[in-house]
Design brief:
The protein has about 150 residues and is mainly alpha-helical. It has helices spanning about 1-10, 15-30, 40-50, 60-80, 85-90, 95-115. It has one domain (about 1-115). The longest helix is centred in the middle third of the chain and has 23 residues, at about 60-80.
Length: about 150
């Protein structure tokens, strides 16, 4: 519950779309049995990353990547959070959590390039006629008005 409160404070500062997405992530995280093995680190990485993460990945994939990242970087994170540097400057953990953000952003960009993500952008199609190269078929060459 304490871990959830850490995240909820960050959620309050997010826009509606991001807050809704990450509320779902938080709900799924609380129901995931993997969180029991390293809750401090999982919630720490999520808390420090949440404001920079895009919302285009399925929540389950984000969680899987979060758990994999924490498992891979557990020793680095543990060393850092038990150092005097972290006590004096808690934001120094972003040196590690920024790597998670980069991983997620790269994944989203790859999915976007493959057409798996609809960004909601409007497509603009322009059609041009080469007026200068071809005469218009109904050209009026007369010098007088018909009116």
């Amino acid at each position: 519950m304490v871990h959830q409160q850490m995240i909820e404070k960050v959620l309050e500062r997010l826009d509606e779309e991001h807050a809704g997405y990450f509320t779902g992530v938080l709900t799924a995280l609380n129901e995931d049995p993997r969180v029991e093995y390293m809750p401090n680190l999982v919630f720490l990485v999520l808390r420090e990353s949440i404001q920079f993460l895009p919302v285009y990945l399925p929540q389950e994939e984000l969680l899987n990547r979060l758990f994999a990242f924490v498992a891979t970087n557990k020793d680095r994170l543990m060393h850092l959070i038990h150092s005097t540097r972290y006590i004096r400057q808690p934001t120094c953990v972003r040196e590690i959590t920024n790597e998670f953000v980069v991983e997620i952003v790269d994944s989203v960009l790859e999915r976007y390039r493959q057409g798996e993500i609809d960004s909601g952008e409007r497509a603009i199609h322009r059609i041009q006629w080469p007026y200068d190269e071809i005469e218009f078929p109904y050209r009026d060459d007369s010098d007088h008005d018909d009116d």
